[in-house]
Automatic annotation (TrEMBL):
<protein>
    <recommendedName>
        <fullName>Uridylate kinase</fullName>
        <ecNumber>2.7.4.22</ecNumber>
    </recommendedName>
</protein>
<dbReference type="GO" id="GO:0006225">
    <property type="term" value="P:UDP biosynthetic process"/>
</dbReference>
<feature type="domain" description="Aspartate/glutamate/uridylate kinase">
    <location>
        <begin position="7"/>
        <end position="216"/>
    </location>
</feature>
<keyword id="KW-0547">Nucleotide-binding</keyword>
<feature type="binding site">
    <location>
        <begin position="12"/>
        <end position="15"/>
    </location>
    <ligand>
        <name>ATP</name>
    </ligand>
</feature>
<feature type="binding site">
    <location>
        <position position="171"/>
    </location>
    <ligand>
        <name>ATP</name>
    </ligand>
</feature>
<comment type="similarity">
    <text>Belongs to the UMP kinase family.</text>
</comment>
<dbReference type="InterPro" id="IPR036393">
    <property type="entry name" value="AceGlu_kinase-like_sf"/>
</dbReference>
<comment type="subunit">
    <text>Homohexamer.</text>
</comment>
<comment type="function">
    <text>Catalyzes the reversible phosphorylation of UMP to UDP.</text>
</comment>
<dbReference type="GO" id="GO:0005737">
    <property type="term" value="C:cytoplasm"/>
</dbReference>
<keyword id="KW-0963">Cytoplasm</keyword>
<keyword id="KW-0067">ATP-binding</keyword>
<feature type="binding site">
    <location>
        <position position="74"/>
    </location>
    <ligand>
        <name>UMP</name>
    </ligand>
</feature>
<feature type="binding site">
    <location>
        <position position="54"/>
    </location>
    <ligand>
        <name>UMP</name>
    </ligand>
</feature>
<dbReference type="InterPro" id="IPR001048">
    <property type="entry name" value="Asp/Glu/Uridylate_kinase"/>
</dbReference>
<dbReference type="GO" id="GO:0033862">
    <property type="term" value="F:UMP kinase activity"/>
</dbReference>
Length: 241
C-alpha cells in the first residue's frame, strides 16, 4: 500500500519500546537502535519531534490502581518520561544529531521548559525536539500529549511506533483471527473503541486533520520504510465525504 508522503512528523514512542527484551527500565542497546532510526529519518530530510511515554518506568494509571493518589501517580509518570527523553537525547547526540528536550514541567537544570515558538524554531533549524513530562497536567496521557504537540508544531502526521504492525479489529496477540486495517477513519476508531490512542487524542487529531500512522517500531529499519510510504502500517485519517 502506498501512503501519502509527509514532511514534518511527530514520532510517538511508548516507553515499553525502550525496554527492549527486558521487563523494566531502559535498555541502552534498544535506545541506540531507535535513535539510529530517528537520525536516519532526519538525514533523509524529515523534520522531527518526538514524544516518549514512561510506562517502562512508571505508569500513573497503574500506580493509582495500586493505591497511589491519581494526581501524584500521574506526576510520577511524567517524571518517568523525562528520564526516557534524556536517554533518547543522549543516544541521538552521540550520533551527531542536534537535539533539544523540552519539558512541560519546568526543570531548568535538566532541560528547556516547553515554549511553543522556541520548539518551532528548533525544528526550523533542523534540530530534533523531544517533548517530555506530558502536557504537564494529570489525567492526560502521552497519547494526548502527542496529538496536542503535533497540532501546535503544525505536523503533517503522527507516526506511532508500537509492538504491532498496525490497527486491528481485535488484539492480534490474543485473537489469531484479528484483521488488520490498511486505512481506517477516526470516527470508526472511536465508534469501535479500537485501542489506537485514547479517545481525547483521536478526537484532537480528527478535528485538526492530523493523520496517525501506526507501525511496528520494534522491526529494525521499519521507520524509514514507513516514512517512505511503504511497508506494513495502518493510517488513521478523516474520510473524504
Amino acid at each position: 500500500m502506498t501512503r501519502p508522503s509527509f514532511k514534518r512528523i511527530l514520532l510517538k514512542l511508548s516507553g515499553e519500546v525502550l525496554m527492549g527484551s527486558g521487563q523494566f527500565g531502559i535498555d541502552p542497546e534498544t535506545v541506540d537502535r531507535v535513535a539510529g532510526e530517528i537520525a536516519a529519518a532526519k538525514d533523509a530530510g524529515f523534520e522531527l519531534c518526538v514524544v516518549v511515554g514512561g510506562g517502562n518506568i512508571f505508569r500513573g494509571l497503574a500506580g493509582a490502581a495500586q493505591g497511589f493518589d491519581r494526581t501524584s501517580a500521574d506526576y510520577m509518570g511524567m517524571l518517568a518520561t523525562v528520564m526516557n527523553a534524556l536517554a533518547v537525547q543522549n543516544a541521538l547526540e552521540k550520533m551527531g544529531c542536534d537535539t533539544r528536550v523540552q519539558s512541560a514541567i519546568p526543570m531548568a537544570s535538566v532541560c528547556e521548559p516547553y515554549i511553543r515558538r522556541k520548539a518551532v524554531r528548533h525544528m526550523e533549524k533542523g534540530r530534533i525536539v523531544i517533548f517530555a513530562a506530558g502536557t504537564g497536567n494529570p489525567f492526560f496521557t502521552t497519547d494526548t500529549t502527542a496529538a496536542l504537540r503535533a497540532a501546535e508544531m503544525n505536523c503533517d502526521a503522527i507516526f506511532k511506533g508500537t509492538s504491532v504492525d498496525g490497527v486491528y479489529d481485535a488484539d492480534p496477540k490474543k485473537v489469531a483471527s484479528a484483521t488488520r486495517y490498511d486505512e481506517i477513519s477516526f470516527d470508526r476508531v472511536l465508534t469501535d473503541n479500537l485501542k489506537v490512542m485514547d479517545a481525547s487524542a483521536i478526537a484532537l487529531c480528527r478535528d485538526n486533520h492530523i493523520p496517525i500512522v501506526v507501525f511496528n517500531i520494534r522491526e529494525t529499519g521499519n521507520l524509514a520504510t514507513v516514512l517512505a510510504g511503504q511497508g506494513v502500517a495502518t493510517i488513521v485519517q478523516n474520510q473524504e465525504s
